[in-house]
């Protein structure tokens, strides 16, 4: 997700998205990689890297829009 801080500076962060029928929700705070084992941590990091190749979501108030990066 691409967000803007209070100074107007843009930054990118990984957020979890949840799809429920026609509703889309997401975590307010960015998520950090974690795992109970080193292999689980590596898998989590791999999924996060793959997410970087997907369309970027930009928060626009309380809605999101998908943009090309």
Describe this structure in words.
The structure is a single chain. This protein is an alpha+beta fold. It has one domain (2-67). The chain has 1 helix and 6 strands. It has one helix spanning 38-51, and strands at residues 2-4, 10-12, 17-20, 23-26, 56-60, 63-67. The strands form 3 sheets. Strands 1-2 form a two-stranded antiparallel sheet. A two-stranded antiparallel ribbon has the order 3-4. Strand 3 and strand 4 (23-26) form a beta hairpin. The longest helix has 14 residues, at 38-51. The mean pLDDT is 86.
Looking at the structure, what is the overall shape?
globular
The amount of beta strand, in percent, is: 25-35%
How much helix is in the residues? 10-25%
The poorly predicted ranges are none
Question: Biggest sheet, strands in spatial order?
Answer: 1-2
Protein structure class = alpha+beta
Biggest β-sheet description: 2 strands, antiparallel
Distinct helical segment count: 1
Q: Mean pLDDT score, rounded?
A: 86
Total separate domains: 1
Keywords for this entry:
20% helix, 69 residues, two-stranded antiparallel sheet, alpha+beta, single chain, 1 helix, 35% strand
């Amino acid at each position: 997700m691409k967000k803007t801080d209070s100074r107007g500076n843009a930054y990118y962060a990984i957020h979890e998205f949840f799809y429920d029928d026609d509703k889309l929700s997401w975590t307010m705070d960015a998520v950090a990689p974690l795992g109970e084992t080193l292999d689980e941590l590596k898998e989590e990091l791999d999924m996060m890297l793959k997410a970087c190749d997907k369309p970027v979501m930009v928060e626009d108030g309380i809605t999101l829009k998908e943009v090309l990066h």
